[in-house]
Amino acid sequence: EWVQARWRRPPVYVQLGERSGDLPGFRVRAEVTGSEGQVTELAEGEGPSLRAAETAAAEVALLRIDRGELG
After folding, report:
1. Smallest Cα–Cα separation from 11: which of 58, 44, 47, 45?
2. Which residue pairs from 20-29 have beta carbons closer than 8 angstroms and sit at least 24 positions apart in sequence?
3. pLDDT digits over 16-36, tens only?
4. How would DSSP label each residue in 23-38?
5. Model pTM?
6. In what order do the strands lie in the sheet containing 25-33?
7. Taking Cα atoms as reference points, which of 52, 4, 56, 54 lies closest to residue 32?
8. CA-CA distance, 61 to 40, in Å (whole number)?
9. What is the pLDDT of residue 20?
10. 13 CB-near residues (< 8 Å, 6+ apart)
11. Residue 26: its pLDDT value, please?
């Protein structure tokens, strides 16, 4: 909600990598594109599924917002 209020757009999740084998998993970056096309990277996350990686990235973004690192 904060991201949508600040940039008037929802964040998007970009898949950065995928592991296979014994420990499969995903790595994603949460980012938002401003009205003038500038991309703001919010956070990165990893998880055993794409959904879990997106959730991890969202949680890190919220921590950064709470700390005042994103403005």
Report:
1. 58
2. 23/48, 24/48, 25/49, 25/53, 26/50, 26/52, 26/53, 27/53, 28/53, 28/54, 28/57, 29/57
3. 999 888 888 999 999 988 878
4. S-EEEEEEEEE-TTS-
5. 0.82
6. 12-19, 25-33, 39-47
7. 4
8. 11
9. 84
10. 28, 29, 30, 53, 54, 57
11. 96
Residue numbers of the chain with a pLDDT score lower than 70: 1-5, 7, 71
Matching residue, tokens 């921590």? 63
Return the structure tokens found at 58: 């969202």
